[in-house]
Amino acid sequence: MIIPDQPDDFLSSFLVQSTLHVIPFPSLFMEKRMIDPIRVAIALGFTCGLGALFLGAAAYYLGWGTEAVDMIGSVYRGYTPTPGGALIGTGWAFVDGFVGGWLFAWIYNKV
Known about the structure:
By secondary structure, the chain is an all-alpha fold. It has helices spanning 10-17, 37-61, 66-73, 83-110. It is elongated, with a radius of gyration of 27 Å.
């Protein structure tokens, strides 16, 4: 490969002749956007509830994560590795995620 002293191809001439324009980080110049606390709360509550349901179902049907269900069950009353316990844990996790998501969004909007 021969490297010429003067750029002959388009890309080399473009790189030599162009100047570098630095685009600043866009969020530094954008106005702050507010987020809806109810939507964040529902999304996080649904996600936490679904996770608790899957963990409870895996503990009951597959025997995986029974220790985790027992540990979480010490906080979520009635959450056990049974089908009924998984539904109870789903409800607790939804409420927990809902409250946590709402608080997160509310604090985010205040700051």
